[in-house]
Amino acid sequence: MLSSSSRLLRVLSLLQTRSHWAGPELAERLEVHPRTLRRDIDRLRQLGYPIHASSGVAGGYAFRAGQSLPPLLLDDEEALAVAIALQIAAAGTVSGVEESSLRALVKLEQVMPTRLRRRTHALRSAIVPVQRMGPTIDAGVLATLATACRDQLQVGFSYRDLRGQASVRQVQPHGLVHTGNHWYLVAWDPARDDWRTFRIDRVQGTPGTGTHFAPRPPPAGDLRAYVTGAMAGVHQQGDQARVVLHQPREVMAKTIPPSAATLEAIDDAHCLMLCGAGQLDSLVYWLMALDVDFDVLEPPVLKERLRRASERVGRSLARGGG
């Protein structure tokens, strides 16, 4: 059994993973008697944590917005700074911390007093991030979907697919994955009786939340692995570019994310890149930015675009005396 102080930290951690915990279930998870849990909750309240208790058949415990922040050693201005920093990191400006930043942002806003949450939202709406590769994502949409994943709430939204076709989807969200320059929602689609991935920049408007659902085991055992596999299938469909890169696959995999292209090893010094050929100008820029030798196998129009780009660069250098 955990010590009293360790158990208090465990209670806090569990309360932040859901919007509501049934009392008996929380006590069972902590392996303590319900009376012990009630004493722990009272102790946390004395320390300033805004924990609401409800009675009855569906009774239990939940965090609520308090009159002041819990004792996290943060004043209002520091909390605002942390929230904005987490939003910027969640937008992908700091590689590798996007998902953890979003989880932390949801936890922080959950216990903010109303006055501070309003200021945070106002600052978030006024901040214009530096433009980066890839589409922009509405932070409000991202936060709504993250909360729905955490609280296991069905969501409905309008969605426009790769071909521009619009539809209304009602799904059970299980997680968010950031890979390459895109955010993806992994959800169970009851209408299709299967798992689906949705690019969040294609979600139209603000998603609406509905009833609770029972979570399912993640597809492929891991959400990120599922998204990677789904993206590999997309690269095999429609107009496709096939380019031989003069570097080993393991080297290029550090630069090219699975969401952008599929890489297949050819030998110890070359690999084949497969990707969509729908936006040739972007592909020309991307190939030049890789800073490796390459051979275009198809489509022929990509070779022509590269030739034109090469001639334009040559003319620019000639005018500048290069």
UniProtKB/TrEMBL annotation:
| A single MF term (Gene Ontology) | DNA-binding transcription factor activity
Q: Where is the HTH deoR-type domain?
A: 4-59
Q: Which Pfam families match?
A: HTH_11, WCX, WYL
UniProt keyword annotation of Signal present: no
Record-linked InterPro entries: CBASS_pafABC_assoc_protein, DeoR_HTH, HTH_11, WCX_dom, WH-like_DNA-bd_sf, WH_DNA-bd_sf, WYL_dom
Task: Give the keywords, sorted.
Answer: Transcription, Transcription regulation
What is the name of the protein in this document?
A: YafY family transcriptional regulator
Taxonomic source organism? Hydrogenophaga aromaticivorans
